[in-house]
Structure formats: C-alpha cells, structure tokens
Write a structure and sequence with these properties.
alpha+beta; five-stranded mixed β-sheet; 3 helices; 5 strands
Length: 83
C-alpha cells in the first residue's frame, strides 16, 4: 500500500510518501488511520482529529468505512478549498 501525505500532514509526519504493509485487520479507512496513529508521535499528531483530515483511495475521496487493500494508493491531506 502506497501512502501519500500532503500539506501540513506531510510536515507533521515527516515524509511525503511511504510504502507500508498494515496488518490484515486493517480493512477500511478508519482502521488504517487508527493503525497509522499508533506508529508514532508524528502520525498521532497529524491524524489526531479525523474531522480535519481527508483521505483518497486510488484518487477517489473515501469515507471512514470505505475499504482499503494492499495494492491501493492512499492520499491523506487536509480539507481543500478552491480559489
């Protein structure tokens, strides 16, 4: 699973991208975020408030119950506004 981090999420985590292999128990977006928060202080800080984090699975906006799979590309970013 490839994870891409954007804006202040990237700054807090300390990397723009990484490839991870979450345990099989991680089956949806909410589970992935929970697992990531447990990986360290930067993750916990960046993902502390799910209401201010958006997730895309394979370049489509995703909700907490949406599934994730090993080959997916996951983007994690703050809410975006247009201009």
């Amino acid at each position: 699973m490839k994870l891409l981090y954007f804006a202040w999420v990237r700054s807090k985590i300390g990397t723009a991208a990484e490839t991870v292999s979450p345990p099989e128990s991680v089956r949806d977006v909410a589970g992935l975020l929970d697992w990531l928060r447990a990986r360290g202080a930067g993750y916990a800080d960046a993902l502390a408030n799910p209401a201010v984090v958006r997730v895309a699975v394979n370049q489509r906006f995703a909700r907490p119950a949406d599934p994730v799979a090993p080959g997916d590309e996951i983007g994690i970013f703050p809410p975006v506004t247009g201009g």
